[in-house]
UniProtKB/TrEMBL annotation:
The keyword Coiled coil applies. This is Pre-mRNA-processing factor 6. Its main location: nucleus. Residues 109-119 have a biased composition (Basic and acidic residues). It comes from Esox lucius (Northern pike).
Length: 711
C-alpha cells in the first residue's frame, strides 16, 4: 500500500498520461503510479506490467473488487475473436478519424492476403495482383502466340502512342472494309428479298391462307349469315360469371342534405318560371317569381343548364312558326331529328379543327407571302366540307403569292371546269415558264386538238422541257411525231429518250444516223449502244452485234464511265424479253467477268444464271452457262447445272447435245451418262439408251468410235 498511497493524486517528474497516477516515468494507467509504472488500471511500481491488477516494488496485492450486478452477465462470444478483414472501428456510426504518416506503418508484404476473401486462385495475395498487372502491361511475344498467316494474336504497338498516322491508317482500312462490303450489296439485298418472298410463298401468313375463303364470304346470303352460330365464350370463369354488383340504398339524410344545399333539384315548380308558348316552363327565375332555390354556393348546376338549353331551342322554334296562317317554316318536331341524322364529312374533333384554323390564320397573318399556309388553310376547309370557303382562301393566296406554282395548281384543282381554265390562264400570265401549269392546262382540255394547241403554245415558251415534248409527241400521229421529235432533239440534245424515240420511228439507214448523232451528243449513255445493237439484229446484221457491244464497253471506259455489271445484266434481260437474243447474249459475254475475283467466278456465275431464270430471261441464263462451261470445262457441277437447265427449260435436242459435250470433258461422271441414257429412253429410243449404258460399263470404249445412236 506504500507505493499506491505514496503516488496517489501526485504528479512527479516524467509522469505519464494517467488520469490520477503519478511518479517517475509513470505510465498511462488509470490509477497506477511509481517508477516505471505500466499501463495497468490498478498497478504501480518499477517494471510493472500491463495487467489490470499488477503491483510494483513493495506493492501490496490489490483489494478484491466489490460485487457488481454486471458480473453475472454472460461474456459475448465475439469479444475474444480477431477483427474481420477490412474492419474499421466506428465506421458504421460515422466515427472516422484521420491518418498521419506515422500511423500508416510498414508496406504490405507480398505474401499478405488481399482484402477480397473470395478472390480466385492466383489473386489471393498482394504479390499475385502486382504480377498480373505487370503481365497485362507487357505484350505476349512468345513463339506460341505467333501464327505464320495472322502474326501475333495481339497488337504489337498497343502500348505505344496513338498518333495522327495511326488514325489515318485506321480510316483507310475502314474505307476499304466499307468498299468491300458495298461491292455486292445490291445483289445481296436482292437475293435476301427473293429469299423472303420465296419463304412467304412456302409459308404464307394465316390471313393469306384464308384470303380465298374471305372472298367467298361476299356471296353469302342474309340467311346464311344469320345461321352462323355464336362464338363460344373462351374467357375464364371469373370473367364469364362476374359477381353481381351490390347496391346499397341511399339514406334519406343524403337527399335532404343536398336539397337544402341546392346542389340538385329533382322537381321544378311551374310557378317559378314564365309560361312560354311552347308549353315548357322556364326554370330560371323571373322578375316577380322567386326562381329556383339556389343559395349561391358557387357550384354549377348541370341540370339547370340543360333545361335552359332546351327552353332556348323551344323559343327559337316558336319564333320561326307562322302565327297567322298556322303554317310553320321549320318543322319543330323533325328539326332535332334532322340534326342527329347529319353525318359530318370530316373526321376528327371539332376542337382540333378550330385550333388548326386559328393556327393557320395566325400563320397567314404573320407571313402572308408563305404559299404552304394558304394551301393548308384551303385543304382544311375542304376537308371540313366548306368548299366555297376553301376556294375563296386559295384565290386570296394567288393574290398574295402570284409567283407560287403550287398555289395556282391548288386553285385550279379546287375550282370547277371553266373557272379552273380561267385560273390556269391567269397563272400562265404570271408564270409563263412553268411546265406543270401548262400540263395542267392541257389536262383540263377535253378536245385533242385543244390539247395539242395548248402544248404547242407551251413549247413556244418552254422549248427546253423534255416533259412537254414527250407529252406533245404522245398526242401526234407517227409521221407528225417523227417531225416533232426531229425538232425535239435539236432543242433537247441531251435527252436519251427523245433520241431513242426518234430512232424507233425512222428507217434503218436514218435510225443508224440518228444513233450516231446521239452517241456524239451523249457519249456516256449505254442505252444508245444497246439500241444500236438491237437495230442491227432486227435487220439481220447479227455479226455486227458483238462488235457494237465491245465498242460500247471500250468507249464508255474511255469517257470515264464505270461499267456496272448488274445494270448491264438487267439490260440483257430486257433485251431477252424483247426478243433480241443475239444482243442479250453479246451483252452477257461482254460483262459477265467484270469486277469479279477469279476464285469467285464459278459461284457468282451460277447465282447470275439462277437469277436470270427466276426473272424469265432464259437466253441470258443459257449464255451464262455457256460462258461458264467455256471457262470451267472440267467442272462436273457446272455441266450438271447446265444439263438440268436444258432439261427444265430447253428441248431434248439441246439437252442431248449438251450431254454429249459433257461426257467428252467429264468421262468419269456417271450422272451425265445416266441422264443421257434416260433422255434416249424417254424418247423411246431404247437401243441408243442401251448403247450409252454399254459405253458406261466399258470405259475403254469411250475414246473409240461410239455405237450408232449413242454418244
Amino acid at each position: 500500500m506504500a507505493s499506491r498511497d505514496g503516488n496517489y493524486n501526485n504528479r512527479n517528474q516524467n509522469s505519464g498520461r494517467g488520469s490520477r497516477g503519478g511518479g517517475q516515468n509513470g505510465g498511462r494507467g488509470f490509477g497506477g503510479g511509481g517508477q516505471n509504472a505500466g499501463r495497468g488500471s490498478g498497478g504501480g511500481g518499477q517494471g510493472s506490467g500491463r495487467g489490470s491488477g499488477g503491483g510494483g516494488r513493495n506493492a501490496e496485492p490489490p483489494p478484491m473488487p466489490m460485487a457488481s450486478p454486471l458480473m453475472g452477465k454472460k461474456k459475448k462470444p465475439f469479444l475474444g475473436m480477431a477483427a474481420p478483414l477490412g474492419y474499421v472501428p466506428g465506421l458504421g456510426r460515422g466515427a472516422t478519424g484521420f491518418t498521419t504518416r506515422s500511423d500508416i506503418g510498414p508496406a504490405r508484404d507480398a505474401n499478405d492476403p488481399v482484402d477480397d476473401r473470395h478472390a480466385p486462385p492466383g489473386q489471393r495475395t498482394v504479390g499475385d495482383k502486382m504480377k498480373k498487372n505487370q503481365e497485362d502491361d507487357e505484350e505476349d511475344l512468345n513463339d506460341t502466340n505467333y501464327d505464320e498467316f495472322n502474326g501475333y494474336a495481339g497488337s504489337l504497338f498497343s502500348s505505344g502512342p496513338y498518333e495522327k498516322d495511326d488514325e489515318e491508317a485506321d480510316a483507310i482500312y475502314a474505307a476499304l472494309d466499307k468498299r468491300m462490303d458495298e461491292r455486292r450489296k445490291e445483289r445481296r439485298e436482292l437475293r435476301e428479298k427473293d429469299e423472303i418472298e420465296k419463304y412467304r410463298m412456302e409459308r404464307p401468313k394465316i390471313q393469306q391462307q384464308f384470303s380465298d375463303l374471305k372472298r367467298k364470304l361476299s356471296g353469302m346470303s342474309d340467311e346464311e349469315w344469320l345461321s352462323i352460330p355464336e362464338v363460344g365464350d373462351a374467357r375464364n370463369k371469373r370473367q364469364r360469371n362476374p359477381r353481381y354488383e351490390k347496391l346499397t340504398p341511399v339514406p334519406d339524410s343524403f337527399f335532404s342534405k343536398h336539397l337544402t344545399t341546392g346542389d340538385k333539384h329533382t322537381t321544378v315548380d311551374p310557378l317559378q318560371g314564365l309560361n312560354l308558348p311552347g308549353g315548357l316552363e322556364s326554370p330560371y327565375p323571373g322578375g316577380m317569381t322567386p326562381g329556383l332555390m339556389t343559395p349561391g354556393t358557387g357550384e354549377l348546376d348541370m341540370r339547370k343548364i340543360g333545361q335552359a338549353r332546351n327552353t332556348l331551342m323551344d323559343m327559337r322554334l316558336s319564333q320561326v312558326s307562322d302565327s297567322v296562317s298556322g303554317q310553320t317554316v321549320v318543322d319543330p318536331k323533325g328539326y332535332l331529328t334532322d340534326l342527329n341524322s347529319m353525318i359530318p364529312t370530316h373526321g376528327g374533333d371539332i376542337s382540333d379543327i378550330k385550333k388548326a384554323r386559328l393556327l393557320l390564320k395566325s400563320v397567314r397573318e404573320t407571313n402572308p407571302h408563305h404559299p404552304p399556309a394558304w394551301i393548308a388553310s384551303a385543304r382544311l376547309e375542304e376537308v371540313t366540307g366548306k368548299l366555297q370557303v376553301a376556294r375563296n382562301l386559295i384565290m386570296k393566296g394567288t393574290e398574295m403569292c402570284p409567283k407560287s406554282e403550287d398555289v395556282w395548281l391548288e386553285a385550279a384543282r379546287l375550282q370547277p371546269g371553266d373557272t379552273a381554265k380561267a385560273v390556269v390562264a391567269q397563272a400562265v400570265r404570271h408564270l409563263p415558264g412553268s411546265v406543270r401549269i401548262y400540263i395542267r392546262a392541257a389536262e383540263l382540255e377535253t378536245d385533242v386538238r385543244a390539247k395539242k394547241r395548248v402544248l404547242r403554245k407551251a413549247l413556244e415558251n418552254v422549248s427546253k422541257s423534255v416533259r412537254l415534248w414527250k407529252t406533245a409527241v404522245e398526242l401526234e400521229e407517227p409521221e407528225d411525231a417523227r417531225i416533232m421529235l426531229s425538232r425535239a432533239v435539236e432543242c433537247c440534245p441531251t435527252s436519251v429518250e427523245l433520241w431513242l424515240a426518234l430512232a424507233r420511228l425512222e428507217t434503218y439507214e436514218n435510225a443508224r444516223r440518228v444513233l450516231n448523232k446521239a452517241r456524239e451528243n451523249i457519249p456516256t449513255d449505254r442505252h444508245i449502244w444497246i439500241t444500236a445493237a438491237k437495230l442491227e439484229e432486227a435487220n439481220g446484221n447479227t455479226q455486227m452485234v458483238e462488235k457494237i457491244i465491245d465498242r460500247a464497253i471500250t468507249s464508255l471506259r474511255a469517257n470515264g464511265v464505270e461499267i456496272n455489271r448488274e445494270q448491264w445484266i438487267q439490260d440483257a434481260e430486257e433485251c431477252d424479253k424483247a426478243g433480241s437474243v443475239a444482243t442479250c447474249q453479246a451483252v452477257i459475254r461482254a460483262v459477265i467477268g467484270i469486277g469479279i475475283e477469279e476464285e469467285d467466278c464459278k459461284h457468282t456465275w451460277m447465282e447470275d444464271a439462277e437469277s436470270c431464270v427466276s426473272h424469265g430471261a432464259l437466253e441470258c441464263a443459257r449464255a451464262i452457262y455457256a460462258h461458264a462451261l467455256q471457262m470451267f470445262p472440267s467442272k462436273k457441277s457446272v455441266w450438271l447445272r447446265a444439263a438440268y437447265f436444258e432439261k427444265n427449260h430447253g428441248t431434248r435436242e439441246s439437252l442431248e447435245a449438251l450431254l454429249q459435250r459433257a461426257v467428252a470433258h467429264c468421262p468419269k461422271a456417271e450422272v451425265l451418262w445416266l441422264m443421257g441414257a434416260k433422255s434416249k429412253w424417254l424418247a423411246e429410243d431404247v437401243p441408243a439408251a442401251r448403247s450409252i449404258l454399254a459405253l458406261l460399263r466399258g470405259p475403254s470404249v469411250i475414246l473409240g468410235t461410239p455405237v450408232a445412236g449413242a454418244y
